Amino acid sequence: MPAVLITGAASGIGRAAALQFAQQGWDCLLVDISPAIAALPAHCLAQGAASAQAFALDLTDAQALAQLGRQLAALPALDALVNNAGISDSSGRPLAEQAPAQWQRLLRLNLQAPQALFDTCLPRLKPDARIVNVSSGAGQKAIPWRGLYSPSKAGLIAWSHSLAQRYPQLGVTTLCPGFVRTELVQGLMDAGRLALADAVAKIPLGRLAEPEEMAAALVFLAQPQAHVLSGQVISVDGGSGIYGGSSRCALSTAVPAALQTPLHLQLQAGSNAACDGAWLQALQADAPAHAAATGAPCQGVVSTQALAPAVSDLLEAVLSAGQQFAAAHARDASLLLLLPASAPGDVPAWQHQTALAAARMLVATLACELATQGLRINALLLSPEQATEAAVAQLLPLVRFLAGAQAQFVTGQSLDISGTKESHHG
């Protein structure tokens, strides 16, 4: 059975993730400073975990980490490490007025502890292990009066990227949650200190995420199929990270689909017969594996329309695909656009990158506009080699995740999985 170590596992996202890993039969190693962690292994075993063990320790304590390292030596090698533990600063005190003691604890736990824990676990990581670091949308834009929370999360994103480059055999990703209905947030709403309409004012999908949705993303990113995302940041935020509008987003009345809702995936074909054929064949070959699922399925569309057009037509191809998708689905569906990461033929790289940047922003804009209907739009940037039949089959788990119910709080994202320098640097 695969083994995972999860920090911050006693509550919130960490606890939800532990239970979902357990449901899939993983060996669960559960770390938290809270004494409440002691009760979690029994719940994991009840959910189907192969084994479960709790470690109550302070991740900022070097001696405690050394002891953990000695304990891990006698346990199963790790397939995945989830750095989820973290704290915020709710004092409201400006940084200019903070003493070192106030911000040092936050920095040690949020940024330095994940690095120290990785070093501790490295001898016990399998050669192709996956590392998932939980950052925050606050790591991508400054949130004032929360101390060093935003800087610490930005540093975690950067460290994840450098780790992916240093250890290419590992899969290293960063999850950036949006506004999640944790026990703390729900308590604030119950006490009348936080209005739901205010909480979702900058979330295009118009609702809060549930901890189980973050957990579903963590479980996927811990799988071998997620290695193609190594080095990437995955924002599970309902579109808040891409939204730049001044108007308030409407509160959604839609009920989120159950995470295990089956997915009906279809192709929106483009003009490249070979590419379209590879995707159509892969989808048809994959369909029987999911045919036994019961219940009304989620509707997902994979579009190859933007893979083959001339550079001057890339933006038009993305817009056309979005318009066709919106016309065919009144609400509650997902479109995954496939975009060319590198320039075709003799087109200059700078020209393609200009068009690609515009196309990626168009994906985000469409996602914001269509979110009120429960329609999601995301994109994957592919290399030419990833359009072959064999490569397409390997990408299907990622495609199914992004198009399905487990990623229903992901929208407006353009993930570059091409591995080409051009797509990163132009």
TrEMBL record:
Pfam families found in the cross-reference section: adh_short_C2
Family classification: Belongs to the short-chain dehydrogenases/reductases (SDR) family.
Gene3D superfamilies linked: NAD(P)-binding Rossmann-like Domain
InterPro entries attached to this UniProt entry: KR_dom, NAD(P)-bd_dom_sf, SDR_DHRS6-like, SDR_fam
Keyword Hydrolase found: no
Domain of life: Bacteria
Keyword Oxidoreductase tagged: yes
Ketoreductase domain segment(s): 2-183
Organism: Comamonas sediminis
Protein name in the entry: SDR family oxidoreductase
SMART domains named among the record's database cross-references: PKS_KR
Keywords for this protein: Oxidoreductase
